[in-house]
Protein backbone atom coordinates (compact mmCIF):
# COMPACT_ATOMS: atom_id res chain seq x y z
CA UNK A 1 0.00 0.00 0.00
CA UNK A 2 1.47 3.40 -1.00
CA UNK A 3 2.01 6.30 1.39
CA UNK A 4 -0.99 8.08 -0.15
CA UNK A 5 -3.25 5.06 0.19
CA UNK A 6 -2.22 4.38 3.79
CA UNK A 7 -2.79 8.06 4.59
CA UNK A 8 -6.19 7.82 2.93
CA UNK A 9 -7.07 4.83 5.06
CA UNK A 10 -6.25 6.99 8.12
CA UNK A 11 -4.42 4.16 9.77
CA UNK A 12 -3.70 4.91 13.44
CA UNK A 13 -1.61 2.27 15.08
CA UNK A 14 1.29 1.82 17.47
CA UNK A 15 4.43 0.17 16.21
CA UNK A 16 6.16 -1.52 19.17
CA UNK A 17 9.92 -1.89 18.73
CA UNK A 18 11.65 -3.94 21.41
CA UNK A 19 15.31 -2.96 21.35
CA UNK A 20 18.55 -4.15 22.79
CA UNK A 21 21.65 -2.63 21.14
CA UNK A 22 19.90 -1.48 17.99
CA UNK A 23 21.42 2.02 17.77
CA UNK A 24 22.82 1.17 14.34
CA UNK A 25 19.46 0.03 12.92
CA UNK A 26 16.92 2.33 14.53
CA UNK A 27 17.32 5.50 12.41
CA UNK A 28 16.82 3.66 9.11
CA UNK A 29 13.94 1.62 10.52
CA UNK A 30 12.09 4.63 11.96
CA UNK A 31 12.48 6.54 8.69
CA UNK A 32 11.03 3.62 6.72
CA UNK A 33 8.13 3.18 9.14
CA UNK A 34 7.32 6.91 8.99
CA UNK A 35 7.48 6.75 5.21
CA UNK A 36 5.00 3.89 5.04
CA UNK A 37 2.62 4.86 7.86
CA UNK A 38 3.18 8.48 8.93
CA UNK A 39 0.35 8.61 11.49
CA UNK A 40 1.60 5.66 13.49
CA UNK A 41 3.03 6.08 16.97
CA UNK A 42 6.45 4.41 17.20
CA UNK A 43 7.05 3.01 20.67
CA UNK A 44 10.60 1.93 21.43
CA UNK A 45 10.95 -0.32 24.49
CA UNK A 46 14.62 -0.39 25.39
CA UNK A 47 16.32 -2.41 28.11
CA UNK A 48 19.19 -0.07 29.01
CA UNK A 49 21.12 -0.89 25.83
CA UNK A 50 24.82 -0.18 26.37
CA UNK A 51 25.09 1.13 22.80
CA UNK A 52 22.87 4.14 23.55
CA UNK A 53 19.80 2.94 21.64
CA UNK A 54 17.51 4.90 23.98
CA UNK A 55 19.27 8.21 23.36
CA UNK A 56 19.17 7.53 19.60
CA UNK A 57 15.41 6.97 19.96
CA UNK A 58 14.99 10.20 21.91
CA UNK A 59 16.92 12.04 19.21
CA UNK A 60 14.62 10.60 16.53
CA UNK A 61 11.61 11.88 18.49
CA UNK A 62 12.49 15.40 17.39
CA UNK A 63 11.64 14.44 13.81
CA UNK A 64 9.35 11.38 14.02
CA UNK A 65 6.42 10.31 16.28
CA UNK A 66 8.74 8.24 18.47
CA UNK A 67 8.10 7.54 22.15
CA UNK A 68 10.65 5.69 24.29
CA UNK A 69 10.04 3.41 27.26
CA UNK A 70 13.25 2.61 29.09
CA UNK A 71 13.49 -0.40 31.40
CA UNK A 72 16.48 -0.36 33.69
CA UNK A 73 15.81 -3.38 35.91
CA UNK A 74 14.28 -5.78 33.40
CA UNK A 75 15.64 -7.68 30.39
CA UNK A 76 13.84 -9.86 27.94
CA UNK A 77 12.09 -9.54 24.62
CA UNK A 78 8.74 -11.04 25.60
CA UNK A 79 8.21 -8.81 28.63
CA UNK A 80 9.46 -5.78 26.68
CA UNK A 81 6.82 -6.40 24.01
CA UNK A 82 4.07 -6.76 26.63
CA UNK A 83 5.22 -3.52 28.25
CA UNK A 84 4.96 -1.83 24.85
CA UNK A 85 1.50 -3.27 24.22
CA UNK A 86 0.37 -2.08 27.65
CA UNK A 87 1.73 1.46 27.09
CA UNK A 88 0.59 1.83 23.46
CA UNK A 89 -1.88 4.62 22.75
CA UNK A 90 -3.60 2.73 19.93
CA UNK A 91 -5.93 -0.26 20.06
CA UNK A 92 -4.13 -1.82 17.12
CA UNK A 93 -0.44 -2.57 17.63
CA UNK A 94 2.24 -3.92 15.36
CA UNK A 95 5.23 -5.67 16.97
CA UNK A 96 8.42 -6.07 14.97
CA UNK A 97 12.14 -6.52 15.38
CA UNK A 98 14.19 -3.32 15.35
CA UNK A 99 16.98 -4.76 13.23
CA UNK A 100 15.37 -4.33 9.80
CA UNK A 101 14.79 -8.06 9.44
CA UNK A 102 11.05 -7.36 9.15
CA UNK A 103 9.99 -5.11 6.23
CA UNK A 104 8.13 -1.95 7.44
CA UNK A 105 6.44 -1.91 4.01
CA UNK A 106 4.39 -4.92 5.15
CA UNK A 107 2.89 -3.02 8.14
CA UNK A 108 -0.21 -1.64 6.34
CA UNK A 109 -1.17 -5.11 5.10
CA UNK A 110 -0.99 -6.47 8.67
CA UNK A 111 -3.08 -3.59 10.02
CA UNK A 112 -5.58 -3.95 7.20
CA UNK A 113 -6.00 -7.64 8.04
CA UNK A 114 -6.84 -6.73 11.65
CA UNK A 115 -9.15 -3.95 10.58
CA UNK A 116 -10.86 -6.48 8.26
CA UNK A 117 -11.74 -8.63 11.28
CA UNK A 118 -8.73 -10.66 12.36
CA UNK A 119 -7.54 -10.41 15.95
CA UNK A 120 -3.95 -11.22 15.04
CA UNK A 121 -2.18 -10.85 11.69
CA UNK A 122 1.21 -12.58 11.55
CA UNK A 123 3.98 -11.40 9.22
CA UNK A 124 4.70 -14.95 8.15
CA UNK A 125 7.86 -16.37 6.63
CA UNK A 126 6.20 -19.74 6.10
CA UNK A 127 2.82 -18.73 4.64
CA UNK A 128 2.51 -19.21 0.89
CA UNK A 129 4.53 -16.37 -0.65
CA UNK A 130 6.66 -15.87 2.46
CA UNK A 131 10.43 -15.77 1.99
CA UNK A 132 13.65 -15.79 3.99
CA UNK A 133 16.64 -13.90 2.62
CA UNK A 134 20.27 -14.44 3.58
CA UNK A 135 19.68 -16.13 6.91
CA UNK A 136 22.30 -18.64 8.15
CA UNK A 137 21.16 -22.20 7.47
CA UNK A 138 21.44 -23.22 11.13
CA UNK A 139 19.04 -20.38 12.03
CA UNK A 140 16.52 -21.79 9.55
CA UNK A 141 16.85 -25.22 11.14
CA UNK A 142 16.39 -23.74 14.64
CA UNK A 143 13.32 -21.80 13.46
CA UNK A 144 11.82 -24.89 11.80
CA UNK A 145 12.52 -27.03 14.87
CA UNK A 146 10.76 -24.44 17.01
CA UNK A 147 7.86 -24.36 14.59
CA UNK A 148 7.54 -28.17 14.80
CA UNK A 149 7.60 -28.12 18.61
CA UNK A 150 4.86 -25.50 18.52
CA UNK A 151 2.65 -27.59 16.18
CA UNK A 152 0.74 -29.33 19.07
CA UNK A 153 -0.02 -25.83 20.43
CA UNK A 154 -1.05 -23.83 17.35
CA UNK A 155 -1.78 -24.43 13.69
CA UNK A 156 -0.23 -21.08 12.69
CA UNK A 157 2.54 -21.71 10.17
CA UNK A 158 5.02 -19.19 11.61
CA UNK A 159 4.41 -19.14 15.38
CA UNK A 160 8.08 -18.23 15.95
CA UNK A 161 7.59 -14.90 14.17
CA UNK A 162 8.36 -11.65 15.90
CA UNK A 163 6.39 -9.56 13.39
CA UNK A 164 2.64 -9.36 14.01
CA UNK A 165 -0.31 -7.04 14.41
CA UNK A 166 -2.63 -7.57 17.34
CA UNK A 167 -5.89 -6.05 18.50
CA UNK A 168 -5.04 -4.99 22.07
CA UNK A 169 -8.55 -5.61 23.39
CA UNK A 170 -7.90 -9.32 22.81
CA UNK A 171 -5.08 -9.52 25.34
CA UNK A 172 -5.54 -10.79 28.91
CA UNK A 173 -2.11 -9.96 30.31
CA UNK A 174 -2.74 -11.91 33.53
CA UNK A 175 -3.23 -15.10 31.49
CA UNK A 176 0.10 -14.76 29.68
CA UNK A 177 3.34 -16.21 31.09
CA UNK A 178 5.95 -14.24 29.09
CA UNK A 179 9.46 -15.63 29.08
CA UNK A 180 12.35 -15.54 26.56
CA UNK A 181 11.64 -14.42 23.03
CA UNK A 182 8.46 -16.03 21.73
CA UNK A 183 5.69 -13.71 22.86
CA UNK A 184 3.57 -14.39 19.77
CA UNK A 185 3.46 -18.11 20.59
CA UNK A 186 2.40 -17.24 24.14
CA UNK A 187 -0.41 -15.00 22.84
CA UNK A 188 -1.56 -17.54 20.22
CA UNK A 189 -1.58 -20.37 22.78
CA UNK A 190 -3.32 -18.61 25.64
CA UNK A 191 -5.76 -16.38 23.79
CA UNK A 192 -8.62 -18.72 23.09
CA UNK A 193 -10.78 -18.16 20.02
CA UNK A 194 -8.52 -15.54 18.44
CA UNK A 195 -9.03 -15.09 14.68
CA UNK A 196 -5.53 -15.34 13.22
CA UNK A 197 -4.41 -14.65 9.65
CA UNK A 198 -0.94 -14.93 8.15
CA UNK A 199 0.40 -12.35 5.72
CA UNK A 200 3.45 -13.54 3.76
CA UNK A 201 6.56 -11.40 4.26
CA UNK A 202 10.13 -11.41 3.11
CA UNK A 203 12.35 -11.88 6.20
CA UNK A 204 16.00 -10.81 5.91
CA UNK A 205 18.84 -11.18 8.36
CA UNK A 206 19.59 -8.16 10.52
CA UNK A 207 21.56 -5.24 9.00
CA UNK A 208 23.94 -4.47 11.87
CA UNK A 209 24.63 -5.80 15.36
CA UNK A 210 24.23 -9.34 16.65
CA UNK A 211 21.28 -11.60 17.30
CA UNK A 212 20.37 -11.94 21.00
CA UNK A 213 18.70 -15.29 20.36
CA UNK A 214 21.40 -17.30 22.13
CA UNK A 215 21.45 -20.65 23.94
CA UNK A 216 19.78 -19.13 27.02
CA UNK A 217 16.86 -17.95 24.86
CA UNK A 218 16.63 -21.38 23.27
CA UNK A 219 16.46 -23.00 26.72
CA UNK A 220 13.79 -20.50 27.72
CA UNK A 221 11.85 -21.45 24.57
CA UNK A 222 11.92 -25.16 25.47
CA UNK A 223 10.69 -24.37 29.01
CA UNK A 224 7.94 -22.19 27.52
CA UNK A 225 6.81 -24.95 25.12
CA UNK A 226 6.76 -27.58 27.89
CA UNK A 227 4.73 -25.24 30.13
CA UNK A 228 2.27 -24.71 27.26
CA UNK A 229 2.04 -28.48 26.59
CA UNK A 230 1.09 -28.97 30.25
CA UNK A 231 -1.20 -25.98 30.64
CA UNK A 232 -3.07 -26.79 27.42
CA UNK A 233 -2.87 -30.57 27.98
CA UNK A 234 -1.45 -30.85 24.46
CA UNK A 235 -0.95 -34.35 23.04
CA UNK A 236 2.80 -34.68 23.91
CA UNK A 237 1.89 -34.13 27.57
CA UNK A 238 -1.13 -36.43 27.32
CA UNK A 239 1.04 -39.13 25.73
CA UNK A 240 3.67 -38.74 28.50
CA UNK A 241 0.95 -39.08 31.15
CA UNK A 242 -0.61 -42.05 29.36
CA UNK A 243 2.76 -43.82 29.37
CA UNK A 244 3.35 -42.99 33.05
CA UNK A 245 -0.13 -44.29 33.84
CA UNK A 246 0.62 -47.35 31.72
CA UNK A 247 3.81 -47.95 33.70
CA UNK A 248 1.88 -47.83 36.98
CA UNK A 249 -0.75 -50.15 35.50
CA UNK A 250 1.98 -52.55 34.37
CA UNK A 251 3.45 -52.70 37.88
CA UNK A 252 0.01 -53.36 39.44
CA UNK A 253 -0.80 -55.95 36.78
CA UNK A 254 2.48 -57.85 37.22
CA UNK A 255 2.27 -57.79 41.02
CA UNK A 256 -1.22 -59.34 40.95
CA UNK A 257 -0.21 -61.79 38.19
CA UNK A 258 2.83 -63.04 40.13
CA UNK A 259 0.82 -63.28 43.36
CA UNK A 260 -1.83 -65.42 41.64
CA UNK A 261 0.59 -67.64 39.68
CA UNK A 262 3.25 -68.08 42.39
CA UNK A 263 1.10 -67.66 45.53
CA UNK A 264 -2.38 -68.92 44.66
CA UNK A 265 -1.12 -71.43 42.06
CA UNK A 266 -3.64 -70.15 39.48
CA UNK A 267 -3.21 -70.97 35.78
CA UNK A 268 -1.76 -68.39 33.37
CA UNK A 269 -4.99 -67.40 31.63
CA UNK A 270 -7.10 -66.97 34.81
CA UNK A 271 -4.29 -65.02 36.47
CA UNK A 272 -3.89 -62.69 33.48
CA UNK A 273 -7.63 -62.00 33.21
CA UNK A 274 -7.97 -61.24 36.95
CA UNK A 275 -4.81 -59.11 37.08
CA UNK A 276 -5.94 -57.32 33.97
CA UNK A 277 -9.43 -56.52 35.31
CA UNK A 278 -8.04 -54.99 38.50
CA UNK A 279 -5.16 -53.04 36.92
CA UNK A 280 -7.33 -51.84 34.04
CA UNK A 281 -9.89 -50.28 36.40
CA UNK A 282 -7.11 -48.55 38.37
CA UNK A 283 -5.74 -47.26 35.05
CA UNK A 284 -9.13 -46.01 33.95
CA UNK A 285 -9.49 -43.89 37.10
CA UNK A 286 -5.98 -42.42 36.68
CA UNK A 287 -6.41 -41.71 32.97
CA UNK A 288 -9.78 -40.11 33.45
CA UNK A 289 -8.74 -37.81 36.28
CA UNK A 290 -5.16 -37.00 35.20
CA UNK A 291 -4.24 -37.89 31.61
CA UNK A 292 -7.32 -36.70 29.78
CA UNK A 293 -8.47 -34.27 32.41
CA UNK A 294 -10.19 -31.90 29.99
CA UNK A 295 -11.99 -34.66 28.09
CA UNK A 296 -14.72 -35.71 30.45
CA UNK A 297 -17.34 -38.06 29.01
CA UNK A 298 -20.10 -39.67 31.15
CA UNK A 299 -18.48 -42.30 33.43
CA UNK A 300 -20.58 -45.31 32.38
CA UNK A 301 -20.19 -44.67 28.66
CA UNK A 302 -16.52 -43.81 28.82
CA UNK A 303 -15.72 -46.75 31.16
CA UNK A 304 -17.58 -49.12 28.82
CA UNK A 305 -15.61 -47.89 25.83
CA UNK A 306 -12.39 -48.01 27.82
CA UNK A 307 -13.13 -51.66 28.83
CA UNK A 308 -13.81 -52.56 25.17
CA UNK A 309 -10.53 -50.99 24.14
CA UNK A 310 -8.72 -52.62 27.04
CA UNK A 311 -10.33 -55.99 26.16
CA UNK A 312 -8.70 -55.70 22.76
CA UNK A 313 -5.46 -55.13 24.66
CA UNK A 314 -6.19 -58.19 26.84
CA UNK A 315 -6.92 -60.43 23.86
CA UNK A 316 -3.71 -59.21 22.24
CA UNK A 317 -1.85 -60.00 25.46
CA UNK A 318 -3.35 -63.52 25.74
CA UNK A 319 -2.60 -64.25 22.09
CA UNK A 320 1.02 -63.13 22.49
CA UNK A 321 1.36 -65.12 25.76
CA UNK A 322 0.07 -68.31 24.19
CA UNK A 323 2.14 -67.76 21.06
CA UNK A 324 5.18 -67.41 23.35
CA UNK A 325 4.20 -70.18 25.80
CA UNK A 326 7.75 -71.50 25.65
CA UNK A 327 9.19 -68.43 27.40
CA UNK A 328 8.84 -67.30 31.02
CA UNK A 329 5.33 -66.00 31.69
CA UNK A 330 6.60 -62.63 33.00
CA UNK A 331 8.40 -61.93 29.71
CA UNK A 332 5.46 -63.24 27.64
CA UNK A 333 3.02 -61.07 29.65
CA UNK A 334 5.25 -58.04 29.26
CA UNK A 335 5.40 -58.42 25.48
CA UNK A 336 1.65 -58.97 25.39
CA UNK A 337 1.05 -55.81 27.44
CA UNK A 338 3.28 -53.78 25.12
CA UNK A 339 1.34 -55.01 22.08
CA UNK A 340 -2.01 -54.39 23.78
CA UNK A 341 -1.06 -50.90 25.02
CA UNK A 342 -0.94 -49.46 21.50
CA UNK A 343 -4.48 -50.73 20.91
CA UNK A 344 -5.62 -49.19 24.22
CA UNK A 345 -3.93 -45.82 23.55
CA UNK A 346 -5.77 -45.43 20.27
CA UNK A 347 -9.19 -46.40 21.60
CA UNK A 348 -8.79 -44.20 24.70
CA UNK A 349 -7.66 -41.17 22.73
CA UNK A 350 -10.34 -41.53 20.06
CA UNK A 351 -13.36 -42.66 22.04
CA UNK A 352 -13.13 -43.28 25.78
CA UNK A 353 -11.87 -39.81 26.67
CA UNK A 354 -12.75 -37.87 23.54
CA UNK A 355 -14.13 -34.36 23.88
CA UNK A 356 -17.93 -34.43 24.29
N1 LIG B 1 13.82 -4.69 24.99
C1 LIG B 1 14.48 -5.80 24.62
N2 LIG B 1 15.04 -6.59 25.58
N3 LIG B 1 14.56 -6.10 23.28
C2 LIG B 1 15.25 -7.23 22.94
C3 LIG B 1 15.86 -8.08 23.89
C4 LIG B 1 15.74 -7.72 25.28
O1 LIG B 1 16.22 -8.42 26.17
N4 LIG B 1 16.46 -9.10 23.22
C5 LIG B 1 16.25 -8.88 21.90
N5 LIG B 1 15.52 -7.76 21.75
C6 LIG B 1 15.05 -7.19 20.49
C7 LIG B 1 16.16 -6.98 19.48
O2 LIG B 1 16.74 -5.69 19.67
C8 LIG B 1 15.37 -7.09 18.18
O3 LIG B 1 14.71 -5.89 17.92
C9 LIG B 1 14.30 -8.15 18.49
O4 LIG B 1 14.16 -8.13 19.92
C10 LIG B 1 14.68 -9.55 18.04
O5 LIG B 1 15.93 -9.84 18.60
P1 LIG B 1 17.08 -10.45 17.65
O6 LIG B 1 18.38 -10.42 18.38
O7 LIG B 1 17.01 -9.73 16.35
O8 LIG B 1 16.62 -11.94 17.49
P2 LIG B 1 16.69 -12.78 16.12
O9 LIG B 1 17.13 -11.95 15.00
O10 LIG B 1 17.44 -14.01 16.36
O11 LIG B 1 15.14 -13.00 15.88
C11 LIG B 1 14.48 -14.17 16.39
O12 LIG B 1 13.52 -13.76 17.30
C12 LIG B 1 12.68 -12.75 16.77
C13 LIG B 1 11.68 -12.38 17.85
O13 LIG B 1 10.92 -13.51 18.15
C14 LIG B 1 13.85 -14.83 15.19
O14 LIG B 1 13.09 -15.95 15.64
C15 LIG B 1 12.91 -13.86 14.53
O15 LIG B 1 12.08 -14.53 13.59
C16 LIG B 1 11.96 -13.25 15.52
O16 LIG B 1 11.32 -12.16 14.92
MN1 LIG C 1 16.53 -10.15 14.34
Describe it for me?
The protein is of the alpha/beta class and 356 residues long. The protein folds into two domains: 3-232, Spore Coat Polysaccharide Biosynthesis Protein SpsA, Chain A; 235-352, no CATH class. Helices cover 53% and strands 12% of the residues. The chain is built from twelve helices and nine strands. The protein has helices at 3-9, 26-36, 53-60, 77-87, 107-115, 137-150, 183-190, 215-232, 235-263, 268-291, 299-323, 329-352, and strands at 14-19, 41-46, 66-70, 92-95, 120-124, 131-133, 164-167, 196-200, 202-204. It has a seven-stranded mixed beta sheet with strand order 3-2-1-4-7-5-8, sandwiched between helices. The chain has a two-stranded parallel ribbon with strand order 6-9. Helix 2 (26-36) links the parallel strand 1 (14-19) and strand 2. Helix 9 packs antiparallel against helix 12 (329-352). It is elongated and about 90 Å long. The protein starts with a helix and ends with a helix. Mean pLDDT is 90; it is low at 1-11. Bound molecules: guanosine-5'-diphosphate-alpha-D-mannose (GDD) and manganese (II) ion. Manganese (II) ion binds at residues 97, 99, 101, 206, 211. Guanosine-5'-diphosphate-alpha-D-mannose (GDD) binds next to strand 1, strand 2 and helix 4.
Amino acid sequence: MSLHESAAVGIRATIVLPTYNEAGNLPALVARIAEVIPQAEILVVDDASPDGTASVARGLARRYPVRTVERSRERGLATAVLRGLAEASSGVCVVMDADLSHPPEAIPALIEAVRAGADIAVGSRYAVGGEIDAWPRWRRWVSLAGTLLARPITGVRDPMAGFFCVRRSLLRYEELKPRGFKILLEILARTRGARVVEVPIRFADRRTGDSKFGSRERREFLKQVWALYRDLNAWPWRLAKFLITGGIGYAVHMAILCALVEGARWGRTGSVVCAFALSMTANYALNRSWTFRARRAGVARSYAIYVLGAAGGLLTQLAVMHALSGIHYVLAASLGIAAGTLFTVLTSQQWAFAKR
